[in-house]
Amino acid sequence: MKFLAIFGFVVLMAACAAAGITDPSCSGILHGVATNAENEPVPGIRLVLWPIAVDPDYVRPTTTSNEAGAYWFEHVCAGLFTVLVDDERAGYPPEIWSYLLGHKHEAKVTPEHLRIELPVIVPPKAGLLKVVARNSRTNKAVPTLHIMLKTSKVKMYDWLTIMNESSEPLLLPANTDLLCRVVAGGYREWREGRKRGKQIRLAPEGQTTLSVELEPLR
Fold first, then answer.
1. Does residue 18 sit in the same domain as residue 98?
2. Does residue 32 fall inside a structural domain?
3. pTM of the predicted model, to two decimals?
4. Whole-angstrom distance between the N-terminal and C-terminal Cα of the chain?
5. Of the candidates 56, 89, 121, which is a domain's last residue?
6. Last-in-domain residue among 77, 104, 121
7. Do 83 and 104 reside in the same domain of the chain?
8. pLDDT one-digit tens code per residue, 36-62
9. Residue 133: which domain range?
10. Does 128 have pLDDT greater than 90?
11. Residue 3: per-residue pLDDT
12. Between the N and C ends of the chain, which has fewer C-beta atoms within 10 Å?
């Protein structure tokens, strides 16, 4: 799954990647417990330290919660941070969705505040969306798609675009109303989702198949 763009979203507008996230010379410590919606600690989950207003291509440190759901990030440099779940192997949606949907707390590391407790919100397990696209004239499969998604819950960004092979299911946030559009090179945009998007809602750990017919440009 490859994210291509998040138009208008603040993380793509930042330009302070020259500052480090962690470094042996820095003294900040972020720690806390990863808990689910029932406020139960979640052990063994992969977490990522996400700097806010920093170039998204910057390498972000990761760690795994212990048996009590606790985690630590040491040698954190000054800045504004959140900690997100980053564990697609365990069935969670990509961390960008936690960021966009507000499943996060934030903390600012400064010389005066070096050790900060920062809870982590563990979202529900993802739902699987499989988009099967075919040529409306020949019924042949269209293998490579650009799937555009957004949610009305967040107003500060436009369409999130993902390049997807039609055989590869997408891990998407569950229990969330999403709008979906589908485009592919050499084809008109999918009629049912054109411009406004088709509404979808996925159940945690469930799978939905979306059958799409695309009209060739010629």
1. yes
2. yes
3. 0.84
4. 29
5. 121
6. 121
7. yes
8. 999 999 999 999 999 997 665 668 999
9. 127-214
10. yes
11. 54
12. C
